[in-house]
Known about the structure:
The protein is α/β, with parallel strands linked by helices. It contains 25 helices and 28 strands. The strands form eleven sheets. Strands 22-24-23-28-21-27 form a six-stranded mixed β-sheet. Helix 3 runs antiparallel to helix 8, helix 3 (47-60) crosses helix 9 and helix 3 runs parallel beside helix 11 (225-239). It is globular.
Amino acid sequence: xxxxxxxxxxxxxxxxxxxxxxxxxxxxxxxxxxxxxxxxxxxxxxxxxxxxxxxxxxxxxxxxxxxxxxxxxxxxxxxxxxxxxxxxxxxxxxxxxxxxxxxxxxxxxxxxxxxxxxxxxxxxxxxxxxxxxxxxxxxxxxxxxxxxxxxxxxxxxxxxxxxxxxxxxxxxxxxxxxxxxxxxxxxxxxxxxxxxxxxxxxxxxxxxxxxxxxxxxxxxxxxxxxxxxxxxxxxxxxxxxxxxxxxxxxxxxxxxxxxxxxxxxxxxxxxxxxxxxxxxxxxxxxxxxxxxxxxxxxxxxxxxxxxxxxxxxxxxxxxxxxxxxxxxxxxxxxxxxxxxxxxxxxxxxxxxxxxxxxxxxxxxxxxxxxxxxxxxxxxxxxxxxxxxxxxxxxxxxxxxxxxxxxxxxxxxxxxxxxxxxxxxxxxxxxxxxxxxxxxxxxxxxxxxxxxxxxxxxxxxxxxxxxxxxxxxxxxxxxxxxxxxxxxxxxxxxxxxxxxxxxxxxxxxxxxxxxxxxxxxxxxxxxxxxxxxxxxxxxxxxxxxxxxxxxxxxxxxxxxxxxxxxxxxxxxxxxxxxxxxxxxxxxxxxxxxxxxxxxxxxxxxxxxxxxxxxxxxxxxxxxxxxxxxxxxxxxxxxxxxxxxxxxxxxxxxxxxxxxxxxxxxxxxxxxxxxxxxxxxxxxxxxxxxxxxxxxxxxxxxxxxxxxxxxxxxxxxxxxxxxxxxxxxxxxxxxxxxxxxxxxxxxxxxxxxxxxxxxxxxxxxxxxxxxxxxxxxxxxxxxxxxxxxxxxxxxxxxxxxxxxxxxxxxxxxxxxxxxxxxxxxxxxxxxxxxxxxxxxxxxxxxxxxxxxxxxxxxxxxx
Length: 860
């Protein structure tokens, strides 16, 4: 965190100065480790075992917060008799379809209920429609999971937590094998170090104390990435650390507005506010879509009002009740359209044009070679960025031009590079990890032809609409009917970003700005561009631009910027109070029930129906938020509980289970199942995306080391914002690999010399940094030596070098479609890599030595 998020790390240091214990878990010793109370090095890709071991300790030693767990989680809920755990099936859950490589979640349900999967999964289940022999459920599973919770009915509960099928007992059995001995064997963490972590965390959790987890892409970029975070959420729920001050699980985003780019998404599978994108072959009208995506209980019961208001923001007066508010105008999914599937369609010739805006996949994506080969097969490519990045120049200076795999004179892709404005050159907002919108004001005009993304999108739409103005083709109506009358200003007609924020906030039929998503209607009388952002322009004032000093308000600082939803700074904060609405302790008081006022009050905005008493119990026919009781804090879930066990909504299991990374030099000690059985690999079989043998398989020893990628303070992501800045390049001038003295001796590597790192996909070269920061570990009885690789480099800019992500395969988490780049097996050798075709020949030789074929690594 000190390395990648140094400004945010200030607050960690302030907490430490006040007595907080800081534990840093990372394969590398970093700037964070240097300032932590305890550094815990572990094997990359083994975090579920580490967290699962803590869960086992919490359960077996009865360190959990019982009152919180019993009443605020689904621990007491009884599961169906048909459920079978990894304990019963040696590493997989019941419902696994081995041919489809997908789970049928119906056996994971609560006893006595008929549940639907969360959000976007519902309309994919058991679809009869096929596309090229592939079911819709298979081709696009995973999008929008959890955005709607799941229908849970009225599940049976055992308040004693002793029923053998209650979630609590299932959890205890599931994690029983995650012992301290297994943590040592699989993660390489000594038992005494692990015991220190367990003692520190449990001692600082309960009524009077809370602890927080902070993570970043080191957890997400795995084939089980979503389950990493799930494991942490189980642990935090058991300890009572969710919805309370000083608790939670904090995702540190890759840059200032990654949170915002999922809220109002750049993702293919979501609409603003986490409403799932509709599918082409199911629930094709508004009524059936809402019926499939909404719930009877909780705030997702109001899905229709969120969606109708969004459609009114998109199409204004053209959206009427008679035409389903233009629901038919929305694009439709036909499968998974993630960046990696898109690359394969480019290579196949099915995708002819591509926009790249603020992204550099020629360097930053896993197996970046595939990205370049895809772009080489386009008819046109538009790149918008601050600098002439590799994704705009691969056709003249990419690695394949050196090897002869791409010939500049033969390439037909027409590339348009359009310079983009930096954040200092435009108005707009950042939404950070706290869900807080902070407005930034333009400081200077963009130079030359540089323009903001807002300018580009607005004027591109304007020109397209002008060209279609006389069209009588109904297929053009979705563009022509758009509400596109945004005010502009200045010499270049820059759209008013403040007006866009006002539209996102929404207004009523009289044009009066809304102040809460509770005001959204189903009849088309309100328009709102993103329901969770409703209130950011309350009273016609840009709330995100507020900057009231901390000394002039309470410690929650609710008047600095604006946080969604409803300016709440801590989600699910009803859980900070006990069953009677009183704070668990005065020390951790946040919100509480004021019986005299008949309302929730406190330091933060209560994440609860304001006038719902803790003693409220709903009638059987209650719907929406009123269907949840006064002791159901998790209001976006259908049962109002934190889910220790997920009965529907995840594609790879209701509980986390440890699986080895796609390419791993170790076998799975916990189960016979080596890898995540539903990871996404088979659709990416390609000659340039070969996978490696794993564990005890023949050929695995060809790649004996584990590499992990990371960021540096002095560079930013794929380097497009930093490799062109001389003063940053002076601080970090060359691509390097971090190796331990033991690895250097074993492979004959010299400090500041050159090394070649090889996988089944690529060979790259890097300067050698021999350092004791890379701690050797003992894993499964043998010494493991790991390699650290910063991923900021490419062939352009003042500082050039090979891209670390060339090494990674396209193997994805099935929930999020994210790539695994944080744990991969490789080899390392002294000296520079070969040039030209010899570089390809070296990779092919490694494939031959390892016995790699097109089927290697695709086994379920």
